[in-house]
Automatic annotation (TrEMBL):
This is Very-long-chain (3R)-3-hydroxyacyl-CoA dehydratase. It is found in: Endoplasmic reticulum membrane; Membrane. It catalyses: a very-long-chain (3R)-3-hydroxyacyl-CoA = a very-long-chain (2E)-enoyl-CoA + H2O. GO terms for molecular function: very-long-chain (3R)-3-hydroxyacyl-CoA dehydratase activity. InterPro entries: Tyr_Pase-like_PTPLA. It comes from the Eukaryota. Pathway: Lipid metabolism; fatty acid biosynthesis. Keywords: Endoplasmic reticulum, Fatty acid biosynthesis, Fatty acid metabolism, Lipid biosynthesis, Lipid metabolism, Lyase, Membrane, Transmembrane, Transmembrane helix. GO terms for cellular component: endoplasmic reticulum membrane. Pfam families: PTPLA. It comes from Aegilops tauschii subsp. strangulata (Goatgrass).
Length: 131
């Protein structure tokens, strides 16, 4: 019965990760495929570089970080990657805790970088610069 509960929890976490992270990857393939068939939709870059503003934090917080946090007891119980991390005199569990502590700082740097990309691609006022 306990194993069944862990399986259900893992599926719930996978579902949460998929729901919150999947929309981030929706606009890039559309943008690239429209360039391949040389059909340039004017609003697609604006949607692509604007949709990340609410979606990226949602994908990182409830999606990635919460899934890693929920996996910590499972990782510790099973001793995952113990052979590999024995070389570094630490456990995979300790590594994940360190990643979770550093994640917000590293994520903020990436998030601000995407704002710079947005500004360079869309220009001022949300319009693409003309050469």
């Amino acid at each position: 019965r306990m194993a069944y509960c862990k399986i259900v929890i893992s599926y719930v976490n996978y579902f949460r990760f998929t729901i919150f992270s999947a929309p981030l990857w929706l606009f890039r393939p559309l943008h690239l495929s429209s360039q391949i068939i040389q059909l340039y939709l004017k609003q697609l870059p604006t949607c692509r570089y604007t949709a990340f503003i609410p979606l990226y934090p949602i994908g990182v917080g409830p999606g990635e970080m919460w899934t890693m946090y929920q996996a910590l007891p499972f990782v510790k119980e099973r001793g995952l990657y113990s052979g590999f991390f024995a070389k570094f005199s630490m456990s995979y569990h300790s590594f994940l805790v360190g990643v979770l502590l550093c994640y917000p700082l590293l994520w903020l740097k990436l998030y601000l970088h995407v704002f710079k990309q947005r500004k360079s691609k869309l220009g001022k006022g949300g319009r693409k610069k003309r050469a």
